[in-house]
C-alpha cells in the first residue's frame, strides 16, 4: 500500500515536471513569436536617437552650384559626335538636324531602285507608303530623311530575297554620309543557327526600323522597333479588328492558346520546347508540332508523334477566335507573326520573348494591351492569366483593337508611325505626348503642329474632365456677288448672329467679284470677318487663324435656317464634339452589279453623310482637312468645285469610326438627278451628281476602305412634334411647316 | 468536474496524518526538491528571453554610432563595373520575387554597419546621411518591406551612396561585395543622386557594383540601362525647409526665369543676349556677392544688386530654366516643380526623372542646348492654356514624386514592381493625372467605338411579381420584335409559383423563368448567365404600350450607342435653389438626364457593375426602399461613361405612378419626394452629380417627314 502511494506520488511529480517542461517549451515558442510580432510593430529600420544630427547628403552649395566651369558646352557637344557613334548612336550625335530646317521641314526622299534588282513585295509596299505620304519629296536636297532603294528587309543569307553586296552599293550613294539621316527597314536579320541581329552590312549611323529588336542592341531614342508583318499585309486601309462586341463575362471558350512550331534544337527552342507543359486540353490549349523544315524527322524526339497528333485536333483560326489570351512566344527571332495576328483577333497577347523591344515601344504603353510574361516563368502563366479580372480583360481587349487599327492594320500605318516617331524626335517641342499616342483615335491623326495642348482636340474632353466651349464661329461660304439686300446670305447672317452661342462670323469670299465694302454688310451683334477664299472650294476648310472657338458652323450662302435650329444643333454638337452634326443627310451604298460604291441623295431610312452646307464640327477638322489629306484629293475638290463635303465626312468618320449626327430640320434640301431644266442650280445637274459618285470611289480608294458608317437615327428636340402645348416647347419653331 | 476535484482534495489531507513521521520528512524533502526543480526550470525557461526581448526594444532607440564596425581587408574582393547590357531578364533573378496574389515585391534592408578600412578610416566621409536614413525608414514602413531575408526579392544595402563625392570608391565597392546576399549584385538596388566627380563627371555612379540595379540621379542616355535602371530626381533639401503653397496656374510676373548659379559662361552670354532682346520678360538671377554674414546664401539670389528670396521667386515666373551643370541632374528641377513653374530643361542626353512612367511633355519643355538662343520663340509658341496645365502638372509631379525622400524611394520601388508584375502595373492615367483630373475625368470601360452587329439581338428581362395577365401581354408584344433573342422572366414573388409552362404564351424565342430568393429590385439588374447577348432590354410587366417598331428602333439606337442607357420615358434632375438641393422632375420637359429602366436597353456590362461595383450602400438602400433602382442605374452609367442617356421616340402614355399627374388624376406627392430624396442621396454617395442634361431624343431619320409611311423602316412610332 505504502509503496504504491509512493510510486503514485513519484509518478505525479514526474508528470508535473514533464508538464512544466512542455508548458515552458510552449511558452518559449509563444514568447519568441510575441517578440517577433513586437519586432514587426517596432520599426525595422531604427528610429535613430541622433537622427536630427545626421548630416545632409550634400551641401546646399554643392547642389545649387552646378559647377559651371570645365569643358565649354559647344566643345563637349562636338566631342560627343566623335565618341558616340555606331552602336552608341543617339539623335544628338548621329543625326543631322540641320537637314530638317528647310521650309517644308520634315521631308523624306526615297532612292530610286537599283537596276536589275528585285524588290520584295513587302519592301515595295513600304516604299509606296513613303512615296504616298505627305512627307515625300523627290528632291534629295530638301530631304531630312532618306530611305534606301535596296531591299534590306530580309537579311538572312539563306533567303532567296537576300541582296548581295549591299555595302558596295551603299558606298555608291553620294548622300550616304555614313548613314546619317537614313532609315533602314528590316524584318529578318541573321541566319541559322544564331539569328544574330547583324544585317550583313555596315549600317553606320543610320536609324534602324527593325523587327525583333533586342533591348540590348536597341539604341533608345534612335532606332525604331517595328512589328513583323507578312507579305500579304495590306498596303492601306486594312482589315478591321475582329472585336465586334464586348461580351460580358468577357471570357471566351478557351482561356489561353498557342499553336505553332516547336524547335528541337537551336536558339528559341528552350521556350517552345516547354510550351506543352501548360497544355491541359480543356481551357488551355498549347500545341506544338515538330513537322517543319526538310529534315524534321532526323531531330525528332519522343514527344513529337504525340504532339503532332494533338496538333491536328485543333484549328488555328478557331482557337484564335475563341481564346481570351494568346501566347506569343519567341520564335527563332524575338518577334513573330503571332503578335499581329492575336492583336487583330482581340486575343490578348501573352508575350514570352525576353529582351524583345516591343514595336513602337517609344510611344506605345504596351502593358495596357498585352500581358508581358517572362520566358523563365512559363509555368506561372496559367495562374497569372486566370487572375486577370473582368474589367481588365475588357480593357486589354479593347486596347488591342485600338492599337491594331491605329498603328498596325496596314503597311501604310506601320511606315507612317515609324516616320512620325522620328519626326516627333526631330521636332521635340512640337510633338505628341504619350497620351495622344495611346488614346483614341491614335497618334497618326493627331497633328502636333496644330496644337500640343490636349484640350484643343475634340477627342479628349471626357478623359480630361472638361466640356467643349459654349460658343461657335460661323463660316459662310459665299460664291455669288452681293447685289441686293434681299439675298439669302443677308437673311442667313441675321439668323446666325442672333444665336446667343455665336461668337463671330467669317465670310469666306469665293466669288469672281471682289468682296463688297464693309458698310454693305448689315450691322450685327457679333464681329464679322471677310476673308478671301481664292476661289477654291477646299478653302472653306482652311484652318483660318481667326477661328478661335472649338465649334465651327459651316454654312453655304443659300442655306435657310432658323436661329433655334442653329441653337439646337449646337447643343447636340456639345454632346458629340468629335462628330459632324448637320441637317441634310446623304447616303452611300455598295453597288454589287457595278462593283463600285454608289451615292444617293434620295430620302432613305439611313444615312452616312451630312452635308457641310450647314453643319457643326470641331475646328481641328479644318486642320486635318488641309494638312492630313493628300494634295491630290484637295485638288480634285478644287477642280470640280464639288465633293468637299463628302471628303470631310470621309475624314471625320475615318477618325471616329462613327457616323455623323443628323438633327431635326424644318426644311429639306433635295439633290436629285432630276430632268434637265434651263434654270437649274449647278448642284442639281446630273454631271454634278455623277461627279459625287466618282468622288466617293476615289476617296474610298485613297483611304483603302470605306470609312463611312450608316446611322438610322435623327436627333430631335425632346418634345418634337409631341402632343403637348406649344408653349411648353423650347424649340417650337422647328415644327412650323 | 468541479465536484470531482473537490472530492479528491477532501480525501487528500486525510491521507497525510496517517503517515509516519519518517515518511513525512521523506515526502517533504521530495516536494521541496520538486519545487526547487520547478523554480529552476521556470528560471531557465524565462530568463534568457527577457534579456533578448529587452535588446529588441532598446534597438529602436539607438545611435547611429552604435552600429557594428566592420573592417575591410585590403584584399577583399571588388565587384565588377556595372554591366551595360544588363536587363531585367538577364541580370535580375525573377524567381526570388515569385508569384504572389498581391503582386507586390518584397524588399529587404541590410542592418546598418559602419565599414572601415584596415587602418580604421571609414569608407564614406559622411556615413549615413539624413536623406538616406529617411529613404530607408520610408521603405521599412511601407508594404514593400520584409525583414525576412529569404523571402526578399529586392535588397537595399544600408551603405549610403547618394553622393559619390563623399565616398571612397574602392572601399565602398568592397563593402558592397561583403554584403551577405550580394551574389554578384543580383537584385540589389543602389540609390545615387550625385554621380561622378571632377573633372569629367561620369553620369552614373563610379562605384563598381556588378549587376546591381541603380536608381540614379543624373543618367545620360549612354549610361542608363533602359528597363533596368531607374532615373530618379536629385533631391533638394529646400523641399523640406521651405513651404511654398500651391499657386493657381496662370500668367506670372516674369515669362522666363533663370535662377541657377555658376552657369557656364557660354550659356550665361547666350541668356544675357536673350534678356537684351526681350527685356522685362526675362529675369536672370545669380549668386549674391555682397550678402551680410549669417544670411544663408542658398536662399538668396541677386540681379544687379537687387536681392530675391529663393525659391519663392520661382513662383513669379511661367517658365524656369534648368540648365545642366557639370552634372546632368540638377536639384533646381525639384525647386522649380515645387514652385509650379514650368521647367525648361536644357541638358542634352539627360534621362528625366522617372521618365519610364512620367510623361514629361505635359509638365516641361525640353530644348536642345544648342537651341538655347531660340528658347524665347519656342516658349512663346505654347498656348496659354497649355502653359497653365503644365504649371499644374509640374506641381503635381513634385507633390507626388519629388517632395521627399520617401516619395522618391517608394516611386522607385513601384516602378520596379510594375516591371516584375507588368499585368498589375499602374496605368498612364494613374501615374500622370493629378487628383483633380482623376476626379473629374472618366475612362469608360466600353471605350472602343463599336457598332455591334444586329444579328445576336437582345435579351428582354421582364421583372414581375404577380401580374400574370399583364406579364403575358408584355411577352406577347415583345415577341413580335424582330431582334429579340431571348426572354428572361425574373419571378420576384417567393410566395407564389410562376404559372405552369403550358399556360405561357407561345413565343418563337427561348423563354426562361428565373425565380429569385428575395423580392429585391436589384434582381432585375443581376448579370444572369442566361443573358447571352450584349444588349439587355429591361422592361416592367406592365409596359404594354410600346409597339414592335418602337422596340426594334430602340435596339437600333442602342447599337449606335452601346455604352449608354437607351430608354423610352425620360426624366430630369434639377437644382432647387430655394431648398438648396436636387429635385426630381417628371413633367414633360425640354430636357432629359435620365431614362426609366421600366423600358430601356443597355449593355450587360452595366448589370455586372450594378451588382458588384455599385459605390457605397446604394444597392442596399434601393432594396430597402423598394424604389429608385432606375435612378441608381442612371447615376452609375453616367458616372462611369460621362455621357447622357438617350431617350428614344416621342411621348407615350406610360402607366407609372408619376405619370398620373398628366393623366389628370391625383398626383402622388410622396413618390416625387422619395425620388428627389434618392437623387440627393446618390449624389452624396458619388460625391458629385454625374448626370448629364441633354435636349435631344432619337427618332428614326424619316420620322414625321412627308414621305410614304410604308417606305419607312419604323412607321409605327409615336402613335398613342
From TrEMBL, chain A:
<comment type="pathway">
    <text>Protein modification; protein glycosylation.</text>
</comment>
<dbReference type="InterPro" id="IPR040911">
    <property type="entry name" value="Exostosin_GT47"/>
</dbReference>
<keyword id="KW-1133">Transmembrane helix</keyword>
<protein>
    <submittedName>
        <fullName>Exostosin-1c</fullName>
    </submittedName>
</protein>
<feature type="domain" description="Exostosin GT47">
    <location>
        <begin position="104"/>
        <end position="387"/>
    </location>
</feature>
<dbReference type="InterPro" id="IPR004263">
    <property type="entry name" value="Exostosin"/>
</dbReference>
<keyword id="KW-1015">Disulfide bond</keyword>
<keyword id="KW-0325">Glycoprotein</keyword>
<dbReference type="GO" id="GO:0046872">
    <property type="term" value="F:metal ion binding"/>
</dbReference>
<dbReference type="GO" id="GO:0015012">
    <property type="term" value="P:heparan sulfate proteoglycan biosynthetic process"/>
</dbReference>
<comment type="similarity">
    <text>Belongs to the glycosyltransferase 47 family.</text>
</comment>
<dbReference type="GO" id="GO:0005789">
    <property type="term" value="C:endoplasmic reticulum membrane"/>
</dbReference>
<keyword id="KW-0479">Metal-binding</keyword>
<keyword id="KW-0735">Signal-anchor</keyword>
<keyword id="KW-0808">Transferase</keyword>
<keyword id="KW-0812">Transmembrane</keyword>
<feature type="domain" description="Glycosyl transferase 64">
    <location>
        <begin position="472"/>
        <end position="720"/>
    </location>
</feature>
<dbReference type="GO" id="GO:0001503">
    <property type="term" value="P:ossification"/>
</dbReference>
<dbReference type="GO" id="GO:0005794">
    <property type="term" value="C:Golgi apparatus"/>
</dbReference>
<keyword id="KW-0472">Membrane</keyword>
<dbReference type="Pfam" id="PF03016">
    <property type="entry name" value="Exostosin_GT47"/>
</dbReference>
<keyword id="KW-0464">Manganese</keyword>
TrEMBL record, chain B:
<dbReference type="GO" id="GO:0005789">
    <property type="term" value="C:endoplasmic reticulum membrane"/>
</dbReference>
<keyword id="KW-0808">Transferase</keyword>
<dbReference type="GO" id="GO:0015020">
    <property type="term" value="F:glucuronosyltransferase activity"/>
</dbReference>
<comment type="subunit">
    <text>Part of the heparan sulfate polymerase, a dimeric complex composed of EXT1 and EXT2. Could also form homooligomeric complexes. Interacts with NDST1. Interacts with GALNT5.</text>
</comment>
<dbReference type="GO" id="GO:0015012">
    <property type="term" value="P:heparan sulfate proteoglycan biosynthetic process"/>
</dbReference>
<keyword id="KW-0325">Glycoprotein</keyword>
<dbReference type="GO" id="GO:0046872">
    <property type="term" value="F:metal ion binding"/>
</dbReference>
<comment type="function">
    <text>Glycosyltransferase forming with EXT1 the heterodimeric heparan sulfate polymerase which catalyzes the elongation of the heparan sulfate glycan backbone. Glycan backbone extension consists in the alternating transfer of (1-&gt;4)-beta-D-GlcA and (1-&gt;4)-alpha-D-GlcNAc residues from their respective UDP-sugar donors.</text>
</comment>
<keyword id="KW-0812">Transmembrane</keyword>
<dbReference type="InterPro" id="IPR004263">
    <property type="entry name" value="Exostosin"/>
</dbReference>
<feature type="transmembrane region" description="Helical">
    <location>
        <begin position="25"/>
        <end position="47"/>
    </location>
</feature>
<keyword id="KW-0175">Coiled coil</keyword>
<dbReference type="InterPro" id="IPR015338">
    <property type="entry name" value="GT64_dom"/>
</dbReference>
<keyword id="KW-1133">Transmembrane helix</keyword>
<comment type="similarity">
    <text>Belongs to the glycosyltransferase 47 family.</text>
</comment>
<keyword id="KW-0735">Signal-anchor</keyword>
<comment type="pathway">
    <text>Protein modification; protein glycosylation.</text>
</comment>
<keyword id="KW-0328">Glycosyltransferase</keyword>
<dbReference type="GO" id="GO:0005794">
    <property type="term" value="C:Golgi apparatus"/>
</dbReference>
<dbReference type="InterPro" id="IPR029044">
    <property type="entry name" value="Nucleotide-diphossugar_trans"/>
</dbReference>
<dbReference type="Pfam" id="PF09258">
    <property type="entry name" value="Glyco_transf_64"/>
</dbReference>
<keyword id="KW-0464">Manganese</keyword>
Amino acid at each position: 500500500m505504502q509503496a504504491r502511494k509512493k510510486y503514485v506520488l513519484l509518478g505525479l511529480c514526474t508528470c508535473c515536471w514533464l508538464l512544466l517542461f512542455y508548458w515552458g517549451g510552449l511558452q518559449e515558442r509563444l514568447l519568441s513569436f510575441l517578440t517577433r510580432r513586437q519586432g514587426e510593430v517596432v520599426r525595422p529600420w531604427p528610429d535613430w536617437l541622433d537622427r536630427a544630427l545626421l548630416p545632409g547628403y550634400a551641401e546646399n552649395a554643392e547642389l545649387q552650384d552646378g559647377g559651371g566651369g570645365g569643358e565649354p558646352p559647344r566643345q563637349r557637344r562636338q566631342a560627343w559626335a566623335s565618341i558616340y557613334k555606331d552602336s552608341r548612336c543617339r539623335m544628338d550625335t548621329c543625326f543631322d538636324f540641320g537637314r530638317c530646317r528647310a521650309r517644308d521641314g520634315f521631308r523624306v526622299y526615297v532612292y530610286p531602285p537599283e537596276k536589275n534588282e528585285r524588290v520584295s513585295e513587302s519592301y515595295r509596299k513600304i516604299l509606296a507608303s513613303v512615296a504616298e505620304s505627305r512627307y515625300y519629296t523627290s528632291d534629295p536636297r530638301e530631304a531630312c530623311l532618306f530611305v534606301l532603294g535596296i531591299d534590306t528587309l530580309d537579311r538572312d543569307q539563306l533567303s532567296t530575297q537576300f541582296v548581295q553586296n549591299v555595302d558596295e552599293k551603299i558606298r555608291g550613294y553620294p548622300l550616304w554620309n555614313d548613314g546619317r539621316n537614313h532609315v533602314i527597314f528590316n524584318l529578318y536579320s541573321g541566319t541559322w543557327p544564331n539569328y544574330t541581329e547583324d544585317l550583313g552590312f555596315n549600317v553606320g549611323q543610320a536609324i534602324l526600323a527593325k523587327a525583333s529588336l533586342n533591348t540590348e542592341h536597341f539604341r533608345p531614342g534612335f532606332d525604331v522597333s517595328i512589328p513583323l508583318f507578312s507579305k500579304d499585309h495590306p498596303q492601306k486601309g486594312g482589315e478591321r479588328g475582329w472585336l465586334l462586341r464586348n461580351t460580358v463575362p468577357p471570357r471566351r471558350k478557351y482561356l489561353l492558346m498557342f499553336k505553332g512550331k516547336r524547335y528541337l534544337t537551336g536558339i528559341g527552342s528552350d521556350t517552345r520546347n516547354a510550351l506543352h507543359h501548360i497544355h491541359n486540353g480543356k481551357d488551355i490549349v498549347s500545341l506544338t508540332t515538330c513537322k517543319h523544315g526538310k529534315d524534321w524527322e532526323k531531330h525528332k524526339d519522343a514527344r513529337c508523334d504525340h504532339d503532332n497528333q494533338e496538333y491536328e485536333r485543333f484549328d488555328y483560326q478557331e482557337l484564335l477566335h475563341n481564346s481570351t489570351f494568346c501566347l506569343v512566344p519567341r520564335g527563332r527571332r524575338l518577334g513573330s507573326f503571332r503578335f499581329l495576328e492575336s492583336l487583330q483577333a482581340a486575343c490578348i497577347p501573352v508575350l514570352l520573348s525576353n529582351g524583345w523591344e516591343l514595336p513602337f515601344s517609344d510611344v506605345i504603353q504596351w502593358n495596357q494591351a498585352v500581358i508581358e510574361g517572362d520566358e523563365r516563368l512559363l509555368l506561372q502563366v496559367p495562374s497569372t492569366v486566370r487572375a486577370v479580372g473582368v474589367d481588365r480583360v475588357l480593357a486589354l481587349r479593347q486596347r488591342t483593337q485600338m492599337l491594331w487599327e491605329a498603328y498596325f492594320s496596314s503597311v501604310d500605318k506601320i511606315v507612317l508611325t515609324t516616320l512620325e516617331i522620328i519626326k516627333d524626335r526631330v521636332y521635340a517641342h512640337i510633338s505628341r505626348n504619350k497620351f495622344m499616342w495611346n488614346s483614341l483615335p491614335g497618334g497618326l491623326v493627331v497633328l502636333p503642329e496644330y496644337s500640343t495642348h490636349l484640350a484643343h482636340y475634340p477627342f479628349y474632353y471626357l478623359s480630361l474632365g472638361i466640356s467643349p466651349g459654349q460658343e461657335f464661329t460661323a463660316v459662310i461660304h459665299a460664291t455669288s456677288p452681293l447685289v441686293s439686300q434681299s439675298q439669302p446670305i443677308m437673311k442667313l447672317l441675321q439668323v446666325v448672329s442672333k444665336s446667343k452661342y455665336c461668337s463671330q462670323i467669317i465670310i469666306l469670299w469665293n466669288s469672281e467679284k471682289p468682296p463688297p465694302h464693309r458698310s454693305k454688310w448689315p450691322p450685327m451683334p457679333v464681329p464679322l470677318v471677310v476673308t478671301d477664299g481664292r476661289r477654291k472650294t477646299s478653302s472653306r476648310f482652311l484652318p483660318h487663324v481667326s477661328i478661335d472657338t472649338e465649334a465651327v458652323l459651316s454654312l453655304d450662302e443659300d442655306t435657310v435656317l432658323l436661329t433655334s435650329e442653329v441653337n439646337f444643333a449646337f447643343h447636340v454638337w456639345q454632346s458629340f464634339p468629335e462628330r459632324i452634326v448637320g441637317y441634310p443627310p446623304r447616303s452611300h451604298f455598295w453597288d454589287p452589279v457595278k462593283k463600285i460604291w454608289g451615292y444617293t441623295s434620295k430620302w432613305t431610312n439611313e444615312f452616312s453623310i451630312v452635308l457641310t452646307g450647314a453643319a457643326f464640327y470641331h475646328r481641328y477638322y479644318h486642320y486635318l482637312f488641309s494638312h492630313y489629306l493628300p494634295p491630290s484629293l484637295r485638288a480634285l475638290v478644287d477642280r470640280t468645285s464639288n465633293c468637299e463635303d463628302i471628303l470631310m465626312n470621309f475624314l471625320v468618320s475615318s477618325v471616329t469610326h462613327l457616323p455623323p449626327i443628323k438633327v431635326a430640320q424644318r426644311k429639306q434640301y433635295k439633290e436629285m438627278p432630276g430632268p434637265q431644266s434651263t434654270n437649274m442650280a449647278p448642284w442639281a445637274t446630273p454631271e454634278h451628281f455623277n461627279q459625287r459618285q466618282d468622288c466617293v470611289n476615289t476617296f474610298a480608294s485613297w483611304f483603302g476602305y470605306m470609312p463611312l458608317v450608316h446611322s438610322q437615327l435623327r436627333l430631335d428636340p425632346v418634345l418634337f412634334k409631341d402632343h403637348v402645348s406649344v408653349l411648353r416647347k423650347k424649340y417650337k419653331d422647328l415644327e412650323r411647316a | 468536474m468541479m465536484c470531482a476535484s473537490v472530492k479528491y482534495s477532501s480525501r487528500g489531507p486525510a491521507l497525510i496524518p496517517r503517515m509516519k513521521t519518517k515518511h513525512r520528512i521523506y515526502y517533504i524533502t521530495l516536494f521541496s526538491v520538486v519545487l526547487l526543480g520547478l523554480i529552476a526550470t521556470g528560471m531557465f525557461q524565462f530568463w534568457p528571453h527577457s534579456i533578448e526581448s529587452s535588446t529588441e526594444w532598446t534597438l529602436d532607440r539607438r545611435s547611429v554610432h552604435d552600429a557594428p564596425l566592420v573592417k575591410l581587408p585590403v584584399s577583399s574582393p571588388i565587384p565588377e563595373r556595372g554591366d551595360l547590357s544588363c536587363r531585367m531578364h538577364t541580370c535580375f533573378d525573377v524567381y526570388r520575387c515569385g508569384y504572389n496574389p498581391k503582386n507586390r515585391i518584397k524588399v529587404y534592408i541590410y542592418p546598418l554597419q559602419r565599414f572601415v578600412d584596415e587602418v580604421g578610416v571609414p569608407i564614406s566621409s559622411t556615413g549615413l546621411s539624413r536623406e538616406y536614413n529617411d529613404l530607408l525608414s520610408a521603405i521599412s514602413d511601407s508594404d514593400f518591406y520584409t525583414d525576412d531575408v529569404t523571402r526578399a526579392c529586392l535588397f537595399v544595402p544600408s551603405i549610403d551612396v547618394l553622393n559619390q563625392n563623399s565616398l571612397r570608391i574602392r572601399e565602398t565597392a568592397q563593402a558592397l561585395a561583403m554584403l551577405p546576399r550580394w551574389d554578384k549584385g543580383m537584385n540589389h538596388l543602389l540609390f545615387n543622386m550625385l554621380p561622378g566627380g571632377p573633372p569629367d563627371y561620369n553620369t552614373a555612379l563610379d562605384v563598381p557594383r556588378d549587376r546591381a540595379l541603380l536608381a540614379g540621379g543624373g543618367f545620360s542616355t549612354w549610361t542608363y540601362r533602359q528597363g533596368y535602371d531607374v532615373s530618379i530626381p536629385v533631391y533638394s533639401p529646400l523641399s523640406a525647409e521651405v513651404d511654398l503653397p500651391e499657386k493657381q496656374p496662370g500668367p506670372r510676373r516674369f515669362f522666363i526665369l533663370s535662377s541657377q548659379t555658376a552657369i557656364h559662361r557660354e550659356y550665361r552670354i547666350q541668356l544675357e543676349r536673350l534678356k537684351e532682346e526681350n527685356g522685362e520678360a526675362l529675369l536672370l538671377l545669380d549668386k549674391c556677392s555682397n550678402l551680410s554674414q549669417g544670411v544663408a546664401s542658398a536662399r538668396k539670389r541677386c540681379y544687379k544688386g537687387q536681392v530675391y528670396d529663393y525659391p519663392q521667386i520661382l513662383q513669379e515666373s511661367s517658365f524656369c530654366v534648368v540648365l545642366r551643370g557639370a552634372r546632368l541632374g540638377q536639384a533646381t528641377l525639384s525647386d522649380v516643380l515645387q514652385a509650379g513653374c514650368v521647367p525648361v530643361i536644357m541638358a542634352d542626353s539627360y534621362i528625366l526623372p522617372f521618365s519610364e512612367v512620367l510623361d514629361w511633355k505635359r509638365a516641361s519643355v525640353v530644348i536642345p542646348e544648342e537651341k538655347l538662343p531660340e528658347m524665347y520663340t519656342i516658349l512663346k509658341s505654347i498656348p496659354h492654356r497649355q502653359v497653365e496645365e503644365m504649371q499644374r502638372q509640374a506641381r503635381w509631379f513634385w507633390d507626388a514624386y519629388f517632395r521627399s525622400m520617401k516619395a522618391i524611394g517608394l516611386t522607385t520601388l513601384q516602378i520596379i514592381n510594375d516591371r516584375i508584375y507588368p499585368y498589375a502595373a499602374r496605368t498612364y492615367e494613374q501615374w500622370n493625372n493629378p487628383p483633380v483630373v482623376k476626379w473629374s475625368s472618366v475612362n469608360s470601360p466600353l471605350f472602343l467605338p463599336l457598332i455591334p452587329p444586329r444579328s445576336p439581338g437582345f435579351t428582354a428581362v421582364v421583372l414581375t411579381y404577380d401580374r400574370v395577365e399583364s406579364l403575358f401581354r408584355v411577352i406577347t408584344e415583345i415577341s413580335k420584335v424582330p431582334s429579340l433573342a431571348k426572354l428572361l422572366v425574373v419571378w420576384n414573388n417567393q410566395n407564389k409559383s410562376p404559372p405552369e409552362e403550358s399556360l405561357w404564351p407561345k413565343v418563337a424565342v427561348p423563354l426562361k423563368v428565373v425565380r429569385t430568393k428575395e423580392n429585391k429590385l436589384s434582381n432585375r439588374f443581376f448579370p444572369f448567365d442566361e443573358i447571352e447577348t450584349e444588349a439587355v432590354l429591361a422592361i416592367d410587366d406592365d409596359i404594354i404600350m410600346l409597339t414592335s417598331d418602337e422596340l426594334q428602333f430602340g435596339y437600333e439606337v442602342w447599337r449606335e450607342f452601346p455604352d449608354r442607357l437607351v430608354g423610352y420615358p425620360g426624366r430630369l434632375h434639377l437644382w432647387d435653389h430655394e431648398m438648396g438641393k436636387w429635385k426630381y422632375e417628371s413633367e414633360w420637359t425640354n430636357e432629359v438626364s435620365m431614362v426609366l429602366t421600366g423600358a430601356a436597353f443597355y449593355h450587360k456590362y452595366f448589370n455586372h457593375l450594378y451588382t458588384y461595383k455599385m459605390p457605397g450602400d446604394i444597392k442596399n438602400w434601393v432594396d430597402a426602399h423598394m424604389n429608385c433602382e432606375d435612378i441608381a442605374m442612371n447615376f452609375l452609367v453616367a458616372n462611369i461613361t460621362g455621357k447622357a442617356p438617350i431617350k428614344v421616340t416621342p411621348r407615350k402614355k406610360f402607366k407609372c405612378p408619376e405619370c398620373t399627374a398628366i393623366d389628370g388624376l391625383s398626383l402622388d406627392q410622396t413618390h416625387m419626394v422619395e425620388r428627389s430624396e434618392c437623387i440627393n442621396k446618390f449624389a452624396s454617395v458619388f460625391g458629385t452629380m454625374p448626370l448629364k442634361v441633354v435636349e435631344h431624343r432619337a427618332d428614326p431619320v424619316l420620322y414625321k417627314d412627308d414621305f410614304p409611311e410604308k417606305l419607312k423602316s419604323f412607321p409605327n412610332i409615336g402613335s398613342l
